[in-house]
Amino acid sequence: MQPSSCDTFVALPPSTEGHRVIFGKNADRPCDEVQEVVYFPAKDYSAGEKVECTYIEVDQVPHTYAVVLSKPAWMWGAEMGANEHQVCIGNEAVWGRESADDDEALLGMDLLRLGLERADKAEKAVNVIAELLEKYGQGGACMEDQCGFTYHNSFLITDRKEAWLLETSGKYWAAERVKGGYRNISNQYSITTKIDKEHPGMREYARSKGWWNGKSQFNFATVYSFTTTARIEAAGSRYYDGKKLLERSSGHITAETMMDILRDKDSGINMEGMFLSAGSMVSVIPTNPDLPGVHYFTATPDPERSVFKPFIFVKHAHQLKLTTSPCYGPNDPVKKKPRFQSKPDRRHELFIKHEVVAAAIDSYKDKGKKITDGMRQLEKKSLTEMEEILSNGIDQPDFLVDLFPSCVQKEVDFYSKNFK
After folding, report:
1. Three-state DSSP class for 278?
2. Residue of 260, 408, 251 whose CA lies nearest to 324
3. How far apart are the C-alpha atoms of 143 and 109, rounded to whole Å?
4. Dist. CA 79–CA 30, nearest whole Å
5. Name one Pfam family in it (predicted).
6. Which is nearest to 75 in space by CA: 29, 129, 22?
7. Is 316 left (phi over 0), alpha (psi -120 to 50) or beta?
């Protein structure tokens, strides 16, 4: 299968307004896949416990941080998310000279979630993912069927101070620190000669395969990418268009800027077709540690026809029931071997309501515009309310325990009002 997704962005001061880090990602996935947004509180574990990921179990750690995730409903891992320490991660599928492994191991999405659960800084998340990758490997089907769709992974990781780009090929990896400005990634390797961390055997492995002569300057993207670029041409055009969109607003990038980029269809960043933008995320993280981060999620496909809704980490935050898909437990076809013998209905309540609305927007021009305008008004109201919190902090955290669910309920009520 040809590269078809995704795009992840980060902007740091001085490219942003208000001394903030702005993170954004579209999770481009198969058109029939449901993306859910879920919250898991921090938790302590006993010695020797295991955590069951999508395909394999790994050793659990004594403590995991609270996380909010946007994830394909069938898998354990996530396409994107954040934790209570304002670490945000998005992942991309990448292909290169090394074949992606069909053997079941950790998916890139599992690595992303584990990184968020275990790291309170972006650099620590790089270390966590690298250690897990070397210990357990990456591999297994990345779609909910038997097509053998597999890939390596790259990750864009940020916190309040900096961002890291981590790119992998099998168990080998390289990482680059980003201290300011902006950076985006797509479905291609983009770390070149600036490598701030790496697998100790990464260069020697490349030399042993004949990809690098051991003498010329080492360029990770050149060495580990395909010898021709035809396979990643689509990803390349999205990467360069995304970079231009960031550059256009450099010095003034805001949450709204990032949302507009994720909604851009001319570039292909907002993807349509067999692969589409199944869920979107934008995070606003003040560099001031006394101020909260705000993490916006759609939980529905196509950000152009979706509402970004805010989540803030506070104690006793409520579960996100309206964006949580049905659970099938041990009877889930993903858990049974052979896997993927059937596909259960994984639509959550917001997804079901949104399906009807999206179809109406496509079918009725005037009514569709009215609905879209109403959705934007809901979003704008949330952005205005969150600006006060981002600037002045939280006076009464208990008022925010139901923030995301209440915004989802307002969206559901809006849909119901327009489709009686």
Report:
1. strand
2. 408
3. 12
4. 13
5. Peptidase_C69
6. 29
7. left
Alpha-carbon distance 127 to 122, whole Å?
9
Q: What is the pTM of this model?
A: 0.96
Interstrand relation of 275-286 and 309-311 (parallel, antiparallel or unpaired)? unpaired
Confidence at residue 3, expressed as pLDDT on a 0 to 100 scale? 47
Long-range contacts of 238-241 (CB under 8 A, 24+ apart): 238/7, 238/186, 238/187, 238/267, 238/268, 238/269, 239/7, 239/184, 239/185, 239/186, 239/188, 239/190, 241/266, 241/267, 241/268, 241/269
pLDDT per residue as tens digits for the range 47-101: 999 999 999 999 999 999 999 999 999 999 999 999 999 999 999 999 999 988 7
Distances (CA, A) of 162 to 89, 182, 273: 12, 10, 35
Vertex 127, ends 319 and 242: CA angle to 5°?
A: 70
Q: Which of 343, 277, 410 is nearest to 73 (CA)?
A: 343
Q: How many CB atoms lie within 10 A of CB 111?
A: 28
Domains along the chain?
A: 7-353 (3.60.60.10)
Report how far apart, in Å, the C-alpha atoms of 335 and of each of 63, 78, 118 are: 26, 17, 25
Among the listed residues 20, 143, 82, 124, the one whose alpha carbon sits nearest the alpha carbon of residue 296: 82
User: How many angstroms separate the CA atoms of 63 and 416, rounded?
Assistant: 41
∠77-80-83 over CA atoms, to 5°? Answer: 90
Query: Which one-letter DSSP state was computed for residue 32?
Result: T
User: pLDDT by residue (tens digit) across 14-40?
Assistant: 999 999 999 999 999 999 999 999 999
The CA–CA distances, whole Å, from 191 to 33, 175, 188, 194, 240 equal 30, 7, 9, 7, 15
pLDDT band at 234 (very low <50, low <70, confident <90, very high): low
If residue 259 lies in a helix (H) or strand (E), which one and from where to where?
helix 255-262
User: In the beta sheet, which residues pair with residue 92?
Assistant: 154
Annotated active-site residue 142? The verdict is no
| Residue in 324, 379, 377 with CA at minimum distance from that of residue 351 | 324
- Cα(325)–Cα(306) distance, rounded to whole angstroms? 18
Examine residue 13 and say whether the peptide bond preceding it is cis (omega within 30 degrees of 0).
Answer: no
